[in-house]
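Appendix B. One record, verbatim.
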Amino acid sequence: MLVLDSILFLSLALLLEPRFGGLALHEWIGLAIIPLIVVHILFGWGWIATSMVRLFRPGLWRLRVNALLNLLLFVALVVTCFSGVMTSFVALPALGIAPRNFEGWRILHNRSEAYLEVLAALHVAMNWSWIANAVSGLVGGGSNRAGVDSTAAAKAPVSQP
């Protein structure tokens, strides 16, 4: 999961600045990231299902905030990806599809991308302890600063807080 998350993070960083690698690279990475996001969600499905059951129990404010954040992130991601596909100058025409209403889709893409940036940063921040523990397990092996056996934690099924 950490490898997939790292690829998603780096891809998102590249996508945030289309001028870095050019429009063609931006569009193809944007298309390539869609199945990776689906896999990320499928890997986290156990957490999603468990969270939905626990969501309305008293005192679980962090879980509620995280669930709302993930929902908003998902919506922003879908809107950004779809509007990005609809504004394609390179990838869609290469697949034989001509974009329509370019200006409207471009405005929606730029606005949703701005929300996506903020929500993705908050998503990383909310899950930083999981990220730190997973990295600690891969890099150091054994126990991390919290005294958790990170080798065992790295082998355990993913369960985000």
